[in-house]
Design a protein that fits this description.
Layout: H1 21-54, H2 60-73, H3 79-92, H4 101-111, H5 113-129, H6 131-137, H7 142-148, H8 156-163, E1 180-184, E2 199-203, H9 204-225
Antiparallel strand pairs: 1-2
Helix pairs in contact: 4-5, 5-6, 5-8, 6-7
């Protein structure tokens, strides 16, 4: 009886071979796949080089030589100094301790108030300037109506200017990052349009109160029609 395969340790192998037939076939397939990946990487690298040369950029050899020269001129640090610099970077940006980008974002959003506020404002700007994308994430009809009644006048500059407003247009209370929002003067459900002239800075309390009244009017109109 032949000796056992060195890969699976189960099937006998033929004389002069180290693997059985199925294991040898799989190993050959893996080697072919590795060679294909290597060939693809080489082709992509060569394509980037040709593109850079066509655009008039410096050859990669010159860039590598300059980088090597800078690395040689850089002072050598001991292991203790490198660890001290790493700890200093972590103290300045503690979210870098995580490898996963989603974990980094979640940690920073939960622990950095300025970053969280900046991201909330960015989300508001994105929803108002791209209502067709917001409609895919929102189950209600608000952004779907905004998509249908948009005239292109709601730009990023308009939305950011409304977010920088100092007071609510309904009650006059001072707007802060915690109570700031944007309201449609004439609700979309009542026939208003998603236009720059129909938007106004509003506090969250007035926005919610106005939304409740608009829903009540909408229900009343539906009952009258029925």
């Amino acid at each position: 009886m032949s000796e056992l395969c060195i890969t699976c340790g189960k099937r006998p192998r033929k004389a002069g071979r180290r693997q059985c037939g199925p294991c040898a076939y799989r190993s050959e397939d893996q080697e072919k796949a590795r060679l294909r990946r290597q060939k693809g990487r080489t082709q992509r690298r060569e394509h980037k080089r040709r593109l850079r040369r066509a655009q008039g950029a410096e050859p990669m050899e010159v860039i590598r030589q300059r980088a090597a020269l800078r690395a040689a001129q850089r002072p050598k640090l001991s292991a203790v100094e490198r660890e001290a610099r790493r700890l200093e970077r972590l103290r300045a940006r503690p979210w870098l301790q995580f490898r996963d980008g989603a974990t980094r974002y979640r940690w920073r959003y939960q622990n950095d108030a300025e970053f969280a506020q900046r991201e909330r404002e960015r989300a508001i700007v994105f929803r108002f300037t791209h209502p067709e994308i917001a409609a895919k994430c929102d189950r209600g009809d608000h952004w779907r109506l905004a998509t249908l009644r948009a005239d292109g006048s709601v730009t990023e500059e308009v939305v950011r200017k409304l977010l920088r407003a100092s007071s609510c247009y309904l009650c006059g209370v001072e707007l802060t990052p915690d109570n700031r929002s944007i309201d449609h003067r004439i609700a979309l459900a009542l026939g208003g349009g998603h236009t720059a002239s129909n938007l106004a800075p509003c506090c969250l309390a007035c926005n919610a109160r106005k939304a409740r009244k608009e829903r009540a009017l909408l229900l009343l109109s539906d009952e009258m029609k029925g």
